[in-house]
From TrEMBL:
Keywords: ATP-binding, Nucleotide-binding, Transport. It comes from the Bacteria. Residues 6-239 form the ABC transporter domain. This is ABC transporter ATP-binding protein. Pfam families: ABC_tran. The keyword Hydrolase does not apply. Signal peptide: none annotated. GO terms for molecular function: ATP binding; ATP hydrolysis activity; transmembrane transporter activity. Belongs to the ABC transporter superfamily. Macrolide exporter (TC 3.A.1.122) family. Coiled coil: none annotated. The lineage of its organism: Bacteria, Pseudomonadati, Bacteroidota, Flavobacteriia, Flavobacteriales. GO terms for cellular component: membrane protein complex; plasma membrane.
Length: 239
Protein backbone atom coordinates (compact mmCIF):
# COMPACT_ATOMS: atom_id res chain seq x y z
CA UNK A 1 0.00 0.00 0.00
CA UNK A 2 1.23 3.49 -0.81
CA UNK A 3 2.07 5.79 2.05
CA UNK A 4 3.01 9.43 1.53
CA UNK A 5 6.07 10.35 3.58
CA UNK A 6 6.87 13.80 2.19
CA UNK A 7 4.19 16.21 1.06
CA UNK A 8 5.46 19.61 -0.08
CA UNK A 9 2.69 22.08 -0.88
CA UNK A 10 3.19 25.11 -3.07
CA UNK A 11 6.75 25.71 -1.91
CA UNK A 12 8.54 28.88 -2.79
CA UNK A 13 11.81 30.34 -1.59
CA UNK A 14 13.00 33.86 -2.18
CA UNK A 15 16.49 34.71 -0.93
CA UNK A 16 17.53 38.32 -0.26
CA UNK A 17 13.93 39.43 -0.43
CA UNK A 18 14.72 42.97 0.74
CA UNK A 19 17.65 43.71 -1.59
CA UNK A 20 17.93 41.89 -4.93
CA UNK A 21 15.50 38.96 -4.64
CA UNK A 22 16.55 35.52 -5.90
CA UNK A 23 13.59 33.25 -6.71
CA UNK A 24 15.13 29.88 -5.85
CA UNK A 25 11.89 27.85 -5.70
CA UNK A 26 8.66 28.68 -7.40
CA UNK A 27 5.40 26.94 -6.39
CA UNK A 28 6.80 23.44 -6.11
CA UNK A 29 4.47 20.56 -5.27
CA UNK A 30 6.13 17.27 -4.41
CA UNK A 31 4.83 14.02 -2.99
CA UNK A 32 7.19 11.21 -2.04
CA UNK A 33 5.89 7.76 -1.13
CA UNK A 34 7.57 5.40 1.30
CA UNK A 35 10.15 3.23 -0.45
CA UNK A 36 10.95 5.63 -3.28
CA UNK A 37 14.48 6.01 -4.65
CA UNK A 38 14.22 9.44 -6.21
CA UNK A 39 16.80 11.69 -7.85
CA UNK A 40 16.37 15.43 -8.16
CA UNK A 41 18.42 16.76 -11.05
CA UNK A 42 18.82 20.10 -12.76
CA UNK A 43 21.43 22.64 -13.75
CA UNK A 44 23.53 24.45 -11.19
CA UNK A 45 21.39 27.05 -9.43
CA UNK A 46 18.09 25.37 -10.35
CA UNK A 47 17.10 24.98 -6.68
CA UNK A 48 18.00 21.37 -5.79
CA UNK A 49 19.75 22.14 -2.50
CA UNK A 50 17.10 24.70 -1.61
CA UNK A 51 14.37 22.10 -2.14
CA UNK A 52 16.21 19.49 -0.02
CA UNK A 53 16.76 22.08 2.72
CA UNK A 54 13.02 22.84 2.80
CA UNK A 55 12.03 19.16 2.87
CA UNK A 56 14.58 18.52 5.60
CA UNK A 57 13.44 21.43 7.76
CA UNK A 58 16.90 23.02 7.55
CA UNK A 59 15.48 26.28 6.23
CA UNK A 60 12.03 27.86 6.06
CA UNK A 61 10.17 28.38 2.79
CA UNK A 62 8.98 31.88 1.88
CA UNK A 63 5.62 30.36 0.95
CA UNK A 64 3.93 26.97 1.19
CA UNK A 65 4.64 24.23 3.72
CA UNK A 66 6.06 20.73 4.11
CA UNK A 67 4.33 17.81 5.79
CA UNK A 68 6.29 14.77 6.90
CA UNK A 69 3.93 11.93 7.75
CA UNK A 70 1.16 14.47 8.36
CA UNK A 71 3.28 16.71 10.62
CA UNK A 72 3.55 20.24 9.26
CA UNK A 73 7.27 20.79 9.88
CA UNK A 74 7.16 24.34 8.52
CA UNK A 75 5.12 25.25 11.59
CA UNK A 76 7.58 23.63 14.03
CA UNK A 77 9.99 25.93 15.85
CA UNK A 78 13.12 25.64 18.01
CA UNK A 79 13.64 22.40 19.91
CA UNK A 80 10.50 20.81 18.51
CA UNK A 81 11.90 21.12 14.99
CA UNK A 82 15.36 19.91 16.10
CA UNK A 83 13.83 16.87 17.83
CA UNK A 84 11.62 16.13 14.84
CA UNK A 85 14.60 16.24 12.48
CA UNK A 86 16.71 14.07 14.76
CA UNK A 87 14.05 11.39 14.96
CA UNK A 88 12.64 11.47 11.45
CA UNK A 89 15.11 12.68 8.85
CA UNK A 90 18.54 11.31 7.93
CA UNK A 91 20.98 13.63 6.16
CA UNK A 92 23.89 12.74 3.90
CA UNK A 93 26.09 15.55 2.58
CA UNK A 94 28.47 15.82 -0.34
CA UNK A 95 31.43 16.34 2.00
CA UNK A 96 30.53 13.40 4.33
CA UNK A 97 30.66 15.62 7.48
CA UNK A 98 31.86 12.85 9.77
CA UNK A 99 33.28 13.89 13.13
CA UNK A 100 37.08 13.56 12.64
CA UNK A 101 37.98 12.48 16.19
CA UNK A 102 35.39 9.69 16.29
CA UNK A 103 35.75 6.18 14.84
CA UNK A 104 33.37 4.75 12.24
CA UNK A 105 31.45 3.02 15.03
CA UNK A 106 31.26 6.18 17.17
CA UNK A 107 30.16 8.32 14.23
CA UNK A 108 27.31 5.90 13.48
CA UNK A 109 26.37 5.77 17.16
CA UNK A 110 26.45 9.54 17.66
CA UNK A 111 22.81 10.46 16.95
CA UNK A 112 21.57 7.53 19.03
CA UNK A 113 23.66 8.88 21.93
CA UNK A 114 21.94 12.26 21.52
CA UNK A 115 18.65 10.36 21.69
CA UNK A 116 19.70 8.62 24.94
CA UNK A 117 19.21 5.16 23.42
CA UNK A 118 20.43 2.34 25.71
CA UNK A 119 23.96 1.03 25.10
CA UNK A 120 22.78 -2.46 24.15
CA UNK A 121 20.43 -1.09 21.47
CA UNK A 122 23.15 1.21 20.12
CA UNK A 123 25.72 -1.57 19.83
CA UNK A 124 23.26 -3.89 18.11
CA UNK A 125 22.22 -1.23 15.61
CA UNK A 126 25.80 -0.17 14.84
CA UNK A 127 26.85 -3.79 14.23
CA UNK A 128 23.84 -4.32 11.94
CA UNK A 129 24.59 -1.13 9.96
CA UNK A 130 28.33 -1.80 9.63
CA UNK A 131 27.40 -5.16 8.13
CA UNK A 132 24.88 -3.57 5.75
CA UNK A 133 27.49 -1.12 4.44
CA UNK A 134 30.12 -3.88 4.23
CA UNK A 135 32.51 -2.26 6.70
CA UNK A 136 32.63 -4.56 9.73
CA UNK A 137 36.42 -4.57 9.46
CA UNK A 138 36.66 -0.76 9.70
CA UNK A 139 34.79 -0.33 12.96
CA UNK A 140 37.65 1.44 14.80
CA UNK A 141 38.95 3.53 11.93
CA UNK A 142 38.76 7.31 12.06
CA UNK A 143 37.57 9.23 8.96
CA UNK A 144 41.13 10.16 7.96
CA UNK A 145 41.94 6.42 7.73
CA UNK A 146 39.01 5.76 5.37
CA UNK A 147 38.60 6.44 1.65
CA UNK A 148 36.00 8.96 0.49
CA UNK A 149 33.64 6.14 -0.53
CA UNK A 150 34.03 4.42 2.83
CA UNK A 151 33.41 7.71 4.66
CA UNK A 152 30.26 8.27 2.64
CA UNK A 153 29.02 4.75 3.45
CA UNK A 154 29.59 5.52 7.15
CA UNK A 155 27.64 8.77 6.63
CA UNK A 156 24.74 6.74 5.17
CA UNK A 157 24.86 4.36 8.16
CA UNK A 158 24.96 7.32 10.58
CA UNK A 159 21.92 8.84 8.87
CA UNK A 160 20.08 5.50 9.11
CA UNK A 161 20.99 4.72 12.71
CA UNK A 162 17.99 6.38 14.39
CA UNK A 163 15.62 4.70 11.87
CA UNK A 164 14.45 7.91 10.16
CA UNK A 165 11.41 8.18 7.89
CA UNK A 166 13.69 8.90 4.93
CA UNK A 167 17.21 9.88 3.89
CA UNK A 168 17.98 13.16 2.13
CA UNK A 169 21.29 13.16 0.30
CA UNK A 170 22.68 16.31 -1.32
CA UNK A 171 25.02 15.29 -4.17
CA UNK A 172 26.21 12.16 -2.31
CA UNK A 173 28.59 11.00 -5.06
CA UNK A 174 30.01 14.41 -6.01
CA UNK A 175 33.41 13.74 -4.40
CA UNK A 176 33.67 10.05 -5.31
CA UNK A 177 35.42 8.28 -8.17
CA UNK A 178 33.36 5.96 -10.41
CA UNK A 179 33.98 2.78 -8.43
CA UNK A 180 33.26 4.38 -5.06
CA UNK A 181 30.12 6.01 -6.49
CA UNK A 182 28.90 2.63 -7.81
CA UNK A 183 29.62 0.97 -4.45
CA UNK A 184 27.72 3.67 -2.60
CA UNK A 185 24.77 3.30 -4.97
CA UNK A 186 24.83 -0.48 -4.52
CA UNK A 187 24.59 0.00 -0.75
CA UNK A 188 21.82 2.59 -1.02
CA UNK A 189 19.80 0.48 -3.50
CA UNK A 190 20.20 -2.63 -1.34
CA UNK A 191 18.90 -0.72 1.68
CA UNK A 192 16.07 0.61 -0.45
CA UNK A 193 15.06 -2.81 -1.77
CA UNK A 194 15.61 -4.92 1.32
CA UNK A 195 14.61 -2.47 4.08
CA UNK A 196 12.27 -0.23 2.08
CA UNK A 197 14.35 2.82 3.05
CA UNK A 198 13.19 5.96 1.23
CA UNK A 199 15.98 7.94 -0.45
CA UNK A 200 15.68 11.38 -2.02
CA UNK A 201 18.89 12.79 -3.43
CA UNK A 202 20.04 15.68 -5.56
CA UNK A 203 22.61 14.95 -8.20
CA UNK A 204 24.37 16.03 -11.37
CA UNK A 205 25.80 12.57 -11.75
CA UNK A 206 24.39 10.66 -14.74
CA UNK A 207 25.44 7.31 -13.18
CA UNK A 208 23.22 8.11 -10.20
CA UNK A 209 20.37 9.38 -12.36
CA UNK A 210 20.47 6.15 -14.39
CA UNK A 211 19.88 4.07 -11.29
CA UNK A 212 17.10 6.18 -9.77
CA UNK A 213 13.55 4.88 -9.95
CA UNK A 214 12.04 8.34 -10.24
CA UNK A 215 13.77 11.41 -11.66
CA UNK A 216 12.53 14.92 -10.95
CA UNK A 217 14.00 17.73 -13.04
CA UNK A 218 14.21 21.27 -11.69
CA UNK A 219 14.79 24.34 -13.79
CA UNK A 220 14.72 27.88 -12.45
CA UNK A 221 13.09 26.69 -9.25
CA UNK A 222 10.28 24.78 -10.99
CA UNK A 223 9.67 21.08 -11.58
CA UNK A 224 9.78 20.70 -15.35
CA UNK A 225 9.77 16.89 -15.54
CA UNK A 226 8.88 14.04 -13.22
CA UNK A 227 9.41 10.65 -14.77
CA UNK A 228 7.34 7.92 -13.23
CA UNK A 229 8.85 4.47 -13.03
CA UNK A 230 8.12 2.09 -15.89
CA UNK A 231 5.51 -0.61 -15.33
CA UNK A 232 8.13 -3.23 -14.47
CA UNK A 233 9.92 -0.88 -12.09
CA UNK A 234 6.58 -0.04 -10.57
CA UNK A 235 6.01 -3.71 -9.77
CA UNK A 236 9.41 -3.80 -8.08
CA UNK A 237 8.40 -0.68 -6.16
CA UNK A 238 5.28 -2.33 -4.82
CA UNK A 239 6.99 -5.55 -3.81
N1 LIG B 1 21.72 31.42 1.09
C1 LIG B 1 21.47 31.95 -0.10
N2 LIG B 1 21.37 33.29 -0.26
C2 LIG B 1 21.09 33.84 -1.47
N3 LIG B 1 20.89 33.12 -2.60
C3 LIG B 1 20.99 31.78 -2.50
C4 LIG B 1 21.28 31.13 -1.27
N4 LIG B 1 21.31 29.79 -1.47
C5 LIG B 1 21.04 29.61 -2.78
N5 LIG B 1 20.85 30.80 -3.40
C6 LIG B 1 20.49 31.00 -4.82
O1 LIG B 1 19.30 30.25 -5.06
C7 LIG B 1 19.34 29.61 -6.34
C8 LIG B 1 19.19 28.09 -6.15
O2 LIG B 1 20.36 27.61 -5.47
P1 LIG B 1 20.56 26.08 -5.06
O3 LIG B 1 21.83 26.01 -4.28
O4 LIG B 1 19.34 25.58 -4.41
O5 LIG B 1 20.73 25.40 -6.48
P2 LIG B 1 21.31 23.96 -6.88
O6 LIG B 1 20.45 23.46 -7.97
O7 LIG B 1 21.43 23.13 -5.65
O8 LIG B 1 22.75 24.34 -7.42
P3 LIG B 1 24.10 23.43 -7.46
O9 LIG B 1 23.82 22.30 -8.38
O10 LIG B 1 25.12 24.40 -8.02
O11 LIG B 1 24.39 23.02 -6.05
C9 LIG B 1 20.66 30.03 -6.96
O12 LIG B 1 20.40 31.15 -7.79
C10 LIG B 1 21.52 30.43 -5.78
O13 LIG B 1 22.48 31.39 -6.15
Amino acid sequence: MKETVIDAHNLSKIYDEKTIPVYALNNVHLHIQRGEFTAIKGPSGSGKTTLLNMIGGLDNPSGGFVEINDTNITALKGNRLIDFRLNNIGFVFQSYNLIPVLTAKENIEFIMLLQNRPKEEREKRVAELLKQIGMEDKVDKRPVELSGGQQQRVAVARALAPKPQFILADEPTANLDSIAAENLLDVMLKLNKEENITFVFSTHDQRVINRARRVITLEDGKIVADTAPTKIEHLLYEK
